[in-house]
Amino acid sequence: MVTGERASAARVRAQRIAGLLIFLANGFCMGTWVTRIPDFKRAFVLSEATLGNVLLAPALGAFLGMPMAGWLVARLGSRAVAVSSGAALAISLFGPGLARSPLELFLVLTFFGASNGVMDVSMNANAAEVEQAWGRPIMSSFHALYSVGGLAGAAAGGGLAHAGVTPAAHLSLAAVAALLLVVLLSGWVRPGVPARDPPKNPFVLPPRAMWPLCAIAFLCMFGEGAMADWSAVYLRDTLGTTAAFAATGFAAFSVAMAAGRFLGDGVSSRLGPVAVVRGGGVLVAVGLAAALLIGHPMAGLIGFASVGLGLSCVVPTVFSAAARTGPTGTSIAAVATFGYLAFLGGPPVVGHIAAATSLPFALSLIVAGALAIVLLAGSAGGPAPARGDQGAGAPS
Fold first, then answer.
1. Is 98 inside a domain boundary?
2. Is there a single domain that holds both residue 77 and residue 168?
3. Is residue 45 left, alpha or beta, with left meaning phi > 0 and alpha meaning psi from -120 to 50?
4. Within 13 Å of residue 381, how many CA atoms lie on the same side as its CB?
């Protein structure tokens, strides 16, 4: 009996490690592509407007892929979908280097985005299944590895670009590395269990029980998208800092978010998911509101770091709650789709409101959204995590 329990614990540990590395591979692919966008802008002589249109392709692909992912996970299980979409994402990195026109680049990036959207949902569904077997919160650690992968991909891309490696060669090397990692991990990823009664239509509204979780994801990702696009602009244009200092705004946000994700599982185990979401909302609201009112560059950095730390564990916690509320794949797909919609739509909304009023006023929408997250935090509790084949939680 003891031997069987040890074997079960070891199996779930291996599945957790495999899942963490799948998240790492996903972040690495995304960070790799982002660093070479300027090279493709120059290679195709794209204006800012045309580049903006081309960069809608990954978003369009992801937005279409996410609902399909939930449907596929329900029918095939999370491992089959996560591994196959991970392989597709890696292979899609070859595409930009082979494109010979902006239209071809748009098409290959649509495939890149669709692969990423399917992988995003399926790997989170798989992580939720590992978490249920583990017996206590571990979802934030998966998202922390995504952040590490993104930073690693960006650092490698910057280094290779500085060394004069062409974008096509760089992306091809990254594709091979990511594909090998996914293939090597395929046998270790936790097997997913298809749903007994899978949905017939992937494009359906989530049930009412999911709406508060979708709203939290929407508000959280709105803040993340706004920070990505407007933090440097606020420091540079509104507060009059140098370009170098302005660049540290998003860095402060990103580093704080990564740190929060590494700490999030321990905090969630001690305080519970509702406290994590509610406390995160309070931190965002207080930190950013104070920064906007003070209007000093250092206050801005602290405020942006507060947003990163406060939001860091909200989406992982909501994904875990969604997996406990309904069928894992379709529930996470619903939450992810609403969140991604806000991530894409948030920056333009902030821009239009800033044009009509001011950027500090527009960024105060993040404060309002954080207060709404505080009010909705109770929905992040949901049913308690079920203990699976591991029994008591494994050491983390």
1. yes
2. yes
3. left
4. 10
173 and 271 part of one domain: no
Domain identity same for 253 and 365 = yes
Each of the 396 residues of the chain gets a pLDDT tens digit; together they read: 556 677 688 899 999 999 999 999 999 998 888 888 888 888 998 887 788 788 888 888 988 898 889 889 988 999 999 999 999 999 999 999 999 999 999 999 999 999 999 999 999 999 999 998 998 899 999 999 998 998 888 888 888 888 889 999 999 999 999 999 999 999 999 997 776 766 666 666 777 888 999 999 999 999 988 887 788 889 988 999 987 788 788 888 988 999 999 999 999 999 999 999 999 999 999 999 999 999 999 999 999 999 999 999 999 999 999 888 877 778 888 888 888 888 878 888 888 899 899 999 999 999 999 999 999 999 998 655 444 444 434 443
Is residue 53 domain-resident? Answer: yes
Cα(29)–Cα(93) distance, rounded to whole angstroms?
A: 8
CA-based nearest residue to 256, from 288, 230, 233: 288
Q: 240 is in which domain, residue-wise?
A: 210-380
List of residues 6+ apart from 265 with CB closer than 8 A: 136, 137, 138, 139, 140, 141, 396
Q: Are residues 175 and 253 in the same domain?
A: no
Outline where DSSP puts E strands in the chain. Answer: none
Distance of CA 45 to the CA centre of its chain: 30
Is the separation of the CB atoms in 238 and 346 below 8 Å?
A: no
**Of 80, 181, 76, 90, nearest to 123 (Cα)?**
80
